[in-house]
């Protein structure tokens, strides 16, 4: 079994992948914190032959996780942001400073769709662009839905957006504080993504496939105006691409990769942008 770990600022996600069949056998998530308890938080390490890790948590969390895993598992791979990988050149002035979850998402998106806009809706919302040909432009970081809500301190932090709500309900004016807050932050997130996507496609002259991941991906997806794919395993896809361990991975196949709809034409994106600027 291969254990893939995605340590975010809020949640540490894991999945167990069967190295022979490529099936995902189990998955889970625990709050990101300093100590892992094997057996309770993460699966039985006796069946794990290799671990692949993406971490944006504090250095100590990664160091302790790696130390614990190395005692039990022969091969532990830790992903890092690099100036270039798998045909993609990192757009950051200091490439190693790009969050590795963003880098892995960009690499996975490029492997799946060629050029892409990769959006990760977690503690932060990140929007990264890779052009056809592999040039990563850099991206945008804004607070995630939960962080935006917590920063308001209006006593509404415990009433989360219902992930099953329809976008239409979430975009109307709120008539109670909790509704006004939830609808406001939802509007902020989806309109930023819609706008940034259109602006960058316009200025680069290319309509890019749009991919969305992260804990809030499903609810954010409903507010996006352009064709896109939700890809819960996008960061894991980057781990598979960087550290291929199975025949399928070496052939470029990522478990759980979605079908990606063709982007809407550039003319339509430009028309939408021109219209929104009139308003
Ligand atoms: N069951 C859940 N527990 C915690 N957060 C959740 C849950 N479902 C959705 N979320 C949302 O997902 C975000 C965490 O998403 P995730 O992509 O795991 O973030 P990160 O990678 O930053 O840890 C939270 O900030 C919250 O808005
Ligand atoms: C922007 C992030 C905080 C997003 O992390 P997440 O929301 O997935 O926990 C993370 O990618 C990070 O720490 N990046 C380093 C700064 C940068 O990418 O510029
Ligand atoms: K994120």
From TrEMBL:
Principal place of residence: cytoplasm
InterPro entries assigned to the protein according to its UniProt record, in alphabetical order: ATPase_NBD, Type_III_PanK
UniProt record, GO biological process: coenzyme A biosynthetic process
GO cellular component, one term: cytoplasm
Keywords: ATP-binding, Coenzyme A biosynthesis, Cytoplasm, Kinase, Metal-binding, Nucleotide-binding, Potassium, Transferase
GO molecular function annotation: ATP binding; metal ion binding; pantothenate kinase activity
EC number per UniProt: 2.7.1.33
Co-factor remark: A monovalent cation. Ammonium or potassium.
Lineage per the UniProt record: Bacteria, Pseudomonadati, Pseudomonadota, Gammaproteobacteria, Oceanospirillales
Full protein name: Type III pantothenate kinase
């Amino acid at each position: 079994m291969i254990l893939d770990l995605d340590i975010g600022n809020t949640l540490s996600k894991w999945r167990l992948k069967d190295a022979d069949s490529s099936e995902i056998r189990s998955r889970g998530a625990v709050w990101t914190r300093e100590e892992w308890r094997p057996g309770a938080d993460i699966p039985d390490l006796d069946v794990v032959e290799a671990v692949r890790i993406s971490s944006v948590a504090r250095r100590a969390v990664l160091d302790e996780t790696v130390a614990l895993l190395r005692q039990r598992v022969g091969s532990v791979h830790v992903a890092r942001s690099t100036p270039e990988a798998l045909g993609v050149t990192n757009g950051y002035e200091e490439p190693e400073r790009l969050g590795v979850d963003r880098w892995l998402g960009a690499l996975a998106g490029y492997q799946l769709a060629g050029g892409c806009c990769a959006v990760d809706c977690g503690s932060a919302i990140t929007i990264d662009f890779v052009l056809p040909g592999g040039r990563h432009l850099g991206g945008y970081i804004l607070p995630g839905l939960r962080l935006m809500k917590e920063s308001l301190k209006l006593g509404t932090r415990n009433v989360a957006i219902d992930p099953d709500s329809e976008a239409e309900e979430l975009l109307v004016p709120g008539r109670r504080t909790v509704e006004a807050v939830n609808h406001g932050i939802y509007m902020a997130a989806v309109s930023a993504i819609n706008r940034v996507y259109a602006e960058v496609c316009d200025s680069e002259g290319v309509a890019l496939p749009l991919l969305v991941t992260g804990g809030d991906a499903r609810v954010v997806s409903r507010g996006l105006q352009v064709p896109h794919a939700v890809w819960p395993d996008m960061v894991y896809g980057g781990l598979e691409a960087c550290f291929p361990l199975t025949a399928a991975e070496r052939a470029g196949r990522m478990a759980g990769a979605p079908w990606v709809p063709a982007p809407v034409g550039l003319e339509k994106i430009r028309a939408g942008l021109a219209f929104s600027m009139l308003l």
